[in-house]
Specification:
Length: 223
C-alpha cells in the first residue's frame, strides 16, 4: 500500500508499533472490562463509542476522568479482575500480523512496541504468540512519565533502538498514536482494521500511509 501521493516511504530503519487495535485484537476484552466498571458505578452499561474513544489512553487516567467520585484504585481492580481469566482466551493477533513482523525482522528493520498498556500484560501477550523475541524495544505505560500523544514514549523507543526520528515510522490506530508520532517527528502509518478507525485521524491530519492488511506494511518501504 502506497501513500496518497503514490510514493513508498524510504529511509526507514525502525518500525514502532502500537499494541491494542494495531497488533492485538483486544477490543472485546477492553469493552467488557469497561462495561463491568460502568455497571458497578452507574448500574448500567456505557456507550460503546465513548469506550472506544478511550483506546490509547492511560487506563487510570481514563477511569479517573470519567468517575471522579470513585476511588480510582478500586476501579482499576474491578477492570483488571474481569480480564484476569479471559485475557489468554480472548486476546488474539490480527490476521497476518506475525508473518508481517517476521518479514520485517528478517529484512533487517528494528522493531519496537510503544503502548499505553502496562508492561505485565504487554509482555504476556507477546510471549503468548511467540513474537517477543522480534522486538528490540518494548515501551509501556510503566516506562514513561508522560504518555501519548506526548512524544516521550516514541522518543524512549528511538533512544533504545539507536535510531533517529527521521529514520523511523510509527504504526497505530488512534489519534493518540498519530499525535505521539507527529510530536516526535516520526512518520505515521495508520491501520485500517481497528475498531477505532476512522477515529484514528485527528481533524485536519493525514497519515503518511494507510494499510488495510498487515501484509501491506512490508510493501511500503523502499530499500
Amino acid at each position: 500500500m502506497k501513500n496518497e501521493e503514490g510514493r513508498v516511504l524510504g529511509g526507514v530503519d525502525a518500525v514502532l508499533f502500537d499494541f491494542d487495535g494495531t497488533l492485538m485484537d483486544t477490543t472485546d476484552i477492553i469493552i467488557g472490562s469497561w462495561q463491568t466498571v460502568y455497571r458497578e458505578v452507574t448500574g448500567r452499561e456505557g456507550d460503546v463509542e465513548e469506550i472506544l474513544g478511550t483506546f490509547g489512553e492511560i487506563l487510570r487516567d481514563s477511569l479517573a476522568n470519567r468517575f471522579p467520585e470513585r476511588d480510582t484504585d478500586e476501579l482499576v481492580d474491578i477492570y483488571k479482575s474481569w480480564q484476569l481469566d479471559r485475557f489468554e482466551k480472548e486476546v488474539k493477533l490480527f490476521p497476518g500480523t506475525k508473518q508481517m513482523l517476521q518479514q520485517l525482522a528478517a529484512d533487517g528493520y528494528k522493531l519496537a512496541i510503544v503502548t499505553s498498556r502496562i508492561k505485565e500484560t504487554s509482555l504476556k501477550a507477546l510471549r503468548m504468540f511467540g513474537i517477543d523475541d522480534l522486538f528490540d524495544s518494548v515501551i509501556t505505560a510503566n516506562d514513561c512519565t508522560k504518555h501519548k500523544p506526548d512524544p516521550e514514549p516514541v522518543e524512549l523507543a528511538l533512544a533504545e533502538l539507536g535510531v533517529s526520528a527521521e529514520r523511523a515510522v510509527m504504526v497505530g490506530d488512534t489519534v493518540h498514536d498519530m499525535g505521539c508520532a507527529r510530536n516526535a517527528g516520526v512518520r505515521y502509518v495508520m491501520v485500517g482494521w481497528s475498531s477505532t478507525v476512522p477515529g484514528g485521524r485527528p481533524e485536519g491530519e493525514q497519515p503518511d500511509a494507510v494499510i488495510e492488511e498487515a501484509g501491506d506494511l512490508t510493501d511500503i518501504f523502499s530499500h
